Structures are given as C-alpha cells and as structure tokens.
Amino acid sequence: MAARVRRFVRFLEDQGYVEVDDGIDDLPRHLADYFDAINSLQLAQGPAQSYRSEAEHVVAWLRIARRRWADIDDTIIDQYAVHDCRCPVWRKRGKLVTTGTKRRRRCARHFVEFLRGRGVIPSVEPVVDDNPHMAAYLTWLKQHRGATDETIRRYRTDITRLMPMLGEPSKWDAAALRRAFQRRSKETPGSASLLVTIMRSYIRFLIVQGECRPALLHAIPSVQRYRLSALPRHVDPATIEKIIAACPTDRPVEVRDKAIILLLARLGLRAGDVRDMRLDDIDWRGGYIRVKGKTRRPDRLPLPQDVGDAILAYLAAARPKAVEEHLFLRVQAPFRPFSSSAEIAGIVARTHERGGIEGVPTGSHIFRHSLATNLLRTGAGLESVGTILRHSSPETTAIYAKVDLPMLMKIAQPWPGDLPC
Predict the structure, then answer these.
(1) pTM given for the model
(2) In 10 A of CB 376, how many CB atoms?
(3) How do the residues of the chain divide into helix, strand and coil, expressed in percent and rounded to 5?
(4) Which domain holds residue 191?
(5) Are residues 213 and 246 in the same domain?
C-alpha cells in the first residue's frame, strides 16, 4: 500500500498537481544528457546500466527525502548509499533489488559531478584547512616553491599526524619536538629522513612568520644516510632483451605494454615520465621525444627505431578512440590515463610473469639503473650517463661509478698487509 501511495504522489508531482521545489530545472533533460554521456564512455553493458539506473534512483530518493539538489554534499550521498530502499523506481521482475553501498555511492557521485560540471548545481567549495598555519604553509609550497600536488599531499599528511602531539607552534619546545619525531619515526622507520626534511621545512616557515622560536630548527635530530653504501640494482643486457622479448603483441593491452617496456628500457624513463607522456610530446619528423621529468623543464631525447615502431603500432591498432591528450590509456572503458606510477610497475611485474623471468626486481626503476650501469661498462662517461638520465646533479650519477668494475680494477691498490690465511 505504501509503495502505491508513493507512486501516486510521484505521479501528481510529475504532472504538476503537487509543487516540488528541488532546486533544479528541467531534470529529465539533464538525466537524458547524462545517459548520452555514459554511452559515449563506451562502457560495458553492465557498468553502463549501473550508472543509468543509480542516477534514476538518486533522483527518486532525493524527491522522497525532500532534499534539494543545491544542498547535496558527501553527507547526503552517504545517506543515500545506506538508505533502506523503498523508492518508486522500476525493479527487475517486480522485486526489490538490493545494491551495494559502494556502487550506490560511486554512481551517485558520478552523476552529481556531471551536474556540477554543467553548472546545474553549485560546485562544492574547496575545504579550507582548519589550521591557519598549515593553510598558509601549503599555499607557500604551491606558489613559491612550485611543489607538486603529490608533494603537498605528503607534507600535509605527515605534519597533520604530528600536530596532535605538539599543539600550538607558540608552545613548542625542543623536548616535545624530539618526542613527537621519535614516536612518528618508529611508526614509519623507512621515511625518517623524509620526515626530517618535512618538519624542518615547516619549522623554517613558522620561524619566518614569527610563530615559533628560531632555536627550534635545531631540535629535529638528523638521520644518518649512507647514499653510497649500497650498489644500485641492475640486470645485464641479455636479461633486458629477454624481458622485451617476453612482450607479446596479440592483444591491444600487450601492444601497449610492449611500448611502455621499450620506453623504460631504451631511454631509462621514470614511471612518472611514461604516465604523464602526451601525444604531442613525440616529434616524428625530428625523431625525438620530449620528457618533462622532475624539474618540469622539458628535455629532448632521441627516439630509437624500435621504440618509435612500438608506439606507432599502439597508436594505429591498440589505443582506444578517446579524446584524451595522454599517450597511454587504460584498455577498459572509461578510457582514462594511468592514475599513478604504481600502474606502470604493475605492467613490468606482469611482463616478468608472462615471460617466466625470476630473480629480477619487478619495479620499473630497474630499467633505469640497468641502462646507466650497462652504459658505463661499455665505456660511456658519467657526464654522458647523467645527460641521458637527466640528472640535475653529478652527485646523483656518481653512485653508478661503483658498478664500473673495469675502472675500479685499474685504480685499486694492493692490500698493504700480509696475505690472508
């Protein structure tokens, strides 16, 4: 009976007999445009139907709950995701179909962002940090230091975790800073040196702002780092060629993966360089490729023949037809670029698994180390290697001098003591 009453009220509202002010005009047209946008993503039938049905569902729920579209936020979306559904929407075989909260939340957010992008409902104001010192510091990092969004996120996370242990900067002392640092470094021992860098940067900013005492800059203990204590991991050229040969080209995803592997192996690119590469970074006539790297200053590298052939094969037969500037895209709809460098490392790991290659690190950086090591062993100088790898400092390239065994043999001195027993 309740369901029939709800449908009747919905009918009266749709016909205009009952006035409803939901804060949005011509909702059916926007819903139809959203369906067209979903179809343009070339999704599989199941996910596409989920987005469409959940859009209709959230429209019905908002009307029943008497919520305005202009007021929708993450809290309202979460309430929709967990509501006990009795909404007057079409149900398969006339039965109530229970959907997961994750799918409800994901699809509702997708529809809301679509409406916000069209200007139908107001966008959410950016969240302002509650800590004014933190907000000013992050703004300074962005505007004056040119820090990337990922760097700012990492700095904010680490500083935020320390703040409950410290309190207001005006009340800091050396003992409290050391206790907080030691406690935090025990939680993440591998990131202790980075934590030192972050905290010292933040303290310097606060000192300049007059928020804490200058002497506190020396309260953060140093972490001893032995940059040249270990050899860089590398593999020999024969293993590199074996990895490349393990890349089949029968499916579109394999064509894409081979092009990525060749870029890593022949040019020593970082995973982030491959992720951020765009279509216009390749100059086919000039035979070079532009790489921005960490410095955001574009460098030009020669485009080897086999790398160019692999990229061309990917563009001609394997790359999805999508309006996207990034060179490499995911093979499943929606066709978007990689979200992080970890996906490049996953491609390397899958290539090793396909080729049955064992005992080799699965990270993408192994190609960069191997290229530098093999170049040195074939007679290239450190300056040339640093140019190819786009190192900003010669000290970064100097670590590879330890793997040049022929050169080390020439300068090795005999042991001054007696022969060992």
Answers:
(1) 0.64
(2) 22
(3) 60, 5, 35
(4) 132-218
(5) no
